Amino acid sequence: MKKVLFPGSFDPITYGHMDVIDQALKVFDKVIVCVMVNSSKKNYTFSLEERVELIKELYKDEPKVEVIYTDKKISATNMAIKNGATSIIKGLRNVTDFAYEFEQAKLNFEISDSKINTIAFFASPSKTVIASSTIKELYSLNIDISPYAPKLVIDALSKKIRRETDED
């Protein structure tokens, strides 16, 4: 069975993330979505458990998707090895993503003693502008984010983020 790990903070999951998962499902037998803590991000909108539950709910009918998490400082390569994945997948939206992920892929390969490859999927053209931080900002400005995130996520955001009003 070919397993791949898709690591990220997923705060929250977007149609961009889902695009990467959908592409990976065509190539791999199992996609392990690994919700991780990014040490450079200090203020998450959703708790680790909430992020995991959102993803599990979205993929409850897809047996090829497994959702795991870690709140420990552990590399994505070690999570991949620990869970029997031979590769890590990443989504690329633009040149900036490519430059960053290229360096990460090189490091992942080196620190895993060549056990873990990184595979990149290009975002579908309609998904290149989607970032979790962007949809949260748009939502707070009372802008429709339905093209960027599923209703489940929008409903969850409504409980977390105060929206601007004309009276503010």
End-to-end distance: 54 Å
CATH class: Alpha Beta
- The averaged pLDDT comes out at 90
Strand order of the largest sheet: 3-2-1-4-5
SS strand fraction: 15-25%
| Tally of helical segments | 6
Helicity level:
25-40%
Assign the CATH topology: Rossmann fold
Low-confidence stretches: none
Structural class: alpha/beta
Shape: globular
Order of helices and strands: EHEHEHEHEHH
Could you tell me the number of beta strands? 5
- The CATH fourth-level homologous superfamily: HUPs
Number of domains: 1
The CATH architecture designation is 3-Layer(aba) Sandwich
* Radius of gyration, in angstroms, nearest whole number: 16 Å
Q: Biggest β-sheet: count, sense, barrel?
A: 5 strands, parallel
Give the tags.
168 residues, alpha/beta, Rossmann fold, five-stranded parallel β-sheet, 5 strands, 39% helix
Structural write-up:
- With 168 residues, the chain is α/β, with parallel strands linked by helices.
- It has a single domain, classed as 3-Layer(aba) Sandwich (Rossmann fold), CATH 3.40.50.
- The chain is built from six helices and five strands.
- It has helices at 15-25, 48-58, 76-82, 95-111, 132-140, 151-160; strands spanning 3-8, 30-35, 65-69, 87-92, 117-122.
- Strands 3-2-1-4-5 form a five-stranded parallel sheet.
- It is globular, with a radius of gyration of 16 Å.
